[in-house]
Amino acid sequence: MVCSLGIEGSANKIGVGIIRDGEVLANVRRTYITPPGEGFLPNATAKHHREVILTLVQESLKEAKIKPADLDVVCYTKGPGMAPPLLVGAIVARTLALLWEKPLMGVNHCIGHIEMGRHITGAQNPIILYVSGGNTQVIAYSNKKYRIFGETIDIAVGNCLDRFARILKLPNDPSPGYNIEQMAKNGSKYIKLPYVVKGMDVSFSGILSHIEELADPTKNPNKRKKTQEAESPETKPADLCFSLQETIFAMLVEITERAMAHCGSNEVLIVGGVGCNERLQKMMEIMCEERGGKLFATDERYCIDNGLMIAHAGAEMFKSGTRMPFEESFVTQRYRTDEVLVTWRDD
Asked: So where does a divalent metal cation get bound (predicted)?
């Protein structure tokens, strides 16, 4: 039985979670929210995290009804992510490990999402669609590693949604992607957008540039002739949100289905913040049902970045015998999913 505390702070969310032998004891989180039309800058995000992280640690211990002495390992997000916010989590984790005399474990953020999703849903060996503000990958497990079958070649799908939300001046509370999703529910007219699938990879930057011009033709630096859609008074923000979701989610369903066919899998697990999107879940579910497969997904408690996923993945690593020397407790902005040796799986 391993009791683990995890700290996640790779982007604009800072969370602390505690798990004991698979039982969720605590999962607390805060989000750095900026004004409409603005993103979050690394240093400002780190400042927010520094101001709330100790409170979150105290809240998690109180919610879990345990003492530091009951913990077996302290875990933190090693990467990928933005360096200043990552450093906040790493420094606090190092400090707690030293104060409490506990082992320290650095966890890959992507692996945390995957293992939390598998644990909560019970999916055995699924094709994984990992979609968030910083990552877009189609993944399958093989020979002690999570192999990347396809990914974005430019920006992540969540980044595409967030940046379009800024163009529309949608609120960042609770998240830009969520507000895009709600506005899309009021859309009914599909506007044709670029559909960019290259083998198993996808591209979103061109789609974003195109739809930005439809929403605001003055954004076109080359002052090309306005498209017919942009000139039409019937082009509404809700229709643009609807069209954007339908297009980019169809791209993701396509490459996920191709991975299922290649691996002979009948399970799909969606993880990451964008995985909360109900329309993406529905489109993926339809594809899975047509193939005789099953979709696994979680709600915002586990899809959105949280400390619990770091605690769980760290506990799995710790139980399998993985140990991290204190000298290696650094952070890295680039830490790919397929760099991690999966010591805790025997299949």
From this structure: 109, 113, 130, 305
Residue 131 among known ligand-binding residues:
yes
Q: Is 302 annotated as a binding residue?
A: no
> How far is Cα 219 from Cα 200, in angstroms, rounded to an integer?
31
The number of C-alpha atoms within 13 Å of 19 and in the hemisphere containing its C-beta is: 25
| 134 has binding-site annotation | yes
When divided into structural domains, the chain yields a total of 2
Determine whether the annotation assigns residue 181 to a binding site: yes
Distance CA 135, CA 198 (A): 17
113 marked ligand binding residue? yes
296 and 164 share a domain? yes
pTM above 0.90, yes or no: yes
344 pLDDT band, cuts 50/70/90, is very high
338 is in an annotated binding site: no
**Segment 187-198 mean pLDDT:** 96
Domain residues for the domain of 57 are: 3-114+305-339
143 shares a domain with 242: yes
